[in-house]
Amino acid sequence: MSGGPDKPRSGKPLLQVEKLSVLYPVRQGFFRAPKFLHAVDGVSFYIRPGETLGLVGESGCGKSTLGRTVLRLVEPTLGRIVFDGQDITRLSERAIRPLRRRMQIVFQDPYSSLNPRMTVREIVGEGIAALRLAKTSREASETVEEMVAKVGLGPEALDRYPNEFSGGQRQRIAIARALAVRPDFVVCDEPTSALDVSVQAQILNLLERLQDELSVSYLFISHDLRVVGYMSHRIAVMYLGRIVEMGPAREVAERRLHPYTRALFGALPREDGDPRPRRVLWGEPPGPLEPPRGCVFQSRCQKAEKGRCDVEAPDLTEIVPGSHHRVACFHPEASELLAPRPSARPSIPASPPSEG
Amino acid sequence: MTSPPLLSVRDLAVSFATAEGTSVKALDGVSFDVPQGKTVGLVGESGCGKTVTALSILRLLPTPSARIDRGAIVFQGEDLLTLPERAMRQVRGGKIGMVFQEPLTALTPVYSVGAQIMEAIRLHERMSRKEARARALALLHRVGFPRPDERFDSYPHELSGGMRQRVLLAMALAAPPRLLVADEPTSALDMALRAQIMALLADQARELGMSLLVITHDLPFVAEIAHELVVLYAGKVVETGPPSRVLASPRHPYTQALVRSVPPAGSFRTRGEKRKALPTLEGSLPDPRRSPGGCAFAPRCPEVMDRCREEAPPLFEAEGGRDVVRCFLQGGAA
């Protein structure tokens, strides 16, 4: 087992994050020393070119903060962010500017993330103009028109305002804006959570198609495990500021080594319409202001061991060497590791699994 | 014979006045039943009319813009639409409870959650503050706060979304209703909490012998607790049936699209490999200001026929008369 930094098997990662922490001082009284809110707590991961890393967790687990920190929209407190070989952790705003083109973001709410006073043409073209990516204004407008067509909107959309569009269409505009500057990396922060299911499918298809065409990398953030499982090459499961499990999407979804991962999958609706009640994750995570000593998940974990889980925090370690499947747990649901991996879709157990 | 349903919505039609002086139809002849002690899931996407249905049942439609054109909402043998407002106030929050989507805006920020639950209790039953406090604590415990006294004096902003939704449920249960109407109770919540709140609703309905009308766009989640699903599209019922059948073999092309656009488990991406796109529904809801003849779903339907554009399909019986479906393709299959 190794607790060292997670690195890809081959090739250079586009983004490498090492032991990244974001702490906020919180004063609870004028004369009291500030406490620290651990929004992100010692997180390491990498993303390869053209790859999607899915980041899943409950609200408040720090996934959005993490997404913004790797773009340097939120200042990291500790750790390192390396983008395409360059350490950007402490770069000044001026020094990071050339990299801004290469790193973009799509937000959750397509209603508040688009300027209502700008036309689609202006919104999508803003980045191209600000970063002087086009030699002539003709070239700029051609790029805008091409991008708008790529996201599936007609040319008549160009001179209209955001309020004339539905939520799904607005999200297409936001995606066109992000991709117009030809980034290498896009943070998708809950891009479909505000949309209807049938519209969600359109946007997921669009993001996947554009990734295939432009070979952009995504950090895909969502609380919806169905969406993350479907969209990602690899998945990271986050809880209370930490990554508790990470690995290839199929491995994580089928093995579910961490009890929290197992609970998250257990909370999904069963696909066969079976009316029996399924496993529900009860309770809520503790507040990030005073994270527990030891494992972050212990207060909701059925396997928590006194004297161990409440004393020592487990490292994110690779259980089977070379599998790139890592888990931070002293009692991973490892019994399945001995059994051959099921090739078909797994059924969700009705009762807590593998306690025996 | 079976007992009459607790709630029966019959041929309900609601329209809204527009700024231009015309009116648009929000509901166009919606009928469904909520049987005693059963859970019905009313499913559809934004703009289908599901919230208008909930507001009609509670008689909370905005006036004067909304108008009920025809129909009846029969609750315990009485048409709610003919009830005077005074009597309706006794029904609302009394025999019919409600839980809404936005758990933050539905609670007032200036009172503690305990005080708000006590107010709900004392609105429907005369009792001392001490008794009301004891009842409020019991309700908090019931909705999943293991140590209710620690939460009693909390203010809404101190609670998470899931906790607030549970507080709202406690208020709705203050005077145990016969029918609980939950409008998108989980849409603002995380996946993990959705399961928690749906399970809680189902448990409470079972324990209190309550009927439940859950209005949602999340078909897979409501399918887990509902006895019956009613699918709405553009103000009309397009399909009804038990969740197991609707999920496994949806009959209406719209229901089929709804079921299939949920990303399937067990489909994973491999680097450098393209895969088949998710089936999607192209286009959007028809503009309610223009109502062309024919089926409202025809412009988006993958299986549209000439007939569908000219003639509006009625509801056909399916599954030997147990279910209904509004599609010509099912017309001969009944």
From TrEMBL, chain A:
It comes from the Bacteria. InterPro entries: AAA+_ATPase, ABC_transp_ATP-bind, ABC_transporter-like_ATP-bd, ABC_transporter-like_CS, Oligopep_ABC_C, P-loop_NTPase. Residues 339-348 have a biased composition (Low complexity). Signal peptide: none annotated. Pfam families: ABC_tran (PF00005), oligo_HPY (PF08352). One of its GO terms (biological process) is transmembrane transport. PROSITE patterns: ABC_TRANSPORTER_1, ABC_TRANSPORTER_2. Residues 334-356 are annotated as: Disordered. One of its GO terms (molecular function) is ATP hydrolysis activity. Residues 15-265 form the ABC transporter domain. Keywords: ATP-binding, Nucleotide-binding, Transport. PANTHER family: D,D-DIPEPTIDE TRANSPORT ATP-BINDING PROTEIN DDPF-RELATED (PTHR43776:SF7), TRANSPORT ATP-BINDING PROTEIN (PTHR43776). Belongs to the ABC transporter superfamily. This is ABC transporter ATP-binding protein. The lineage of its organism: Bacteria, Pseudomonadati, Myxococcota, Polyangia, Polyangiales.
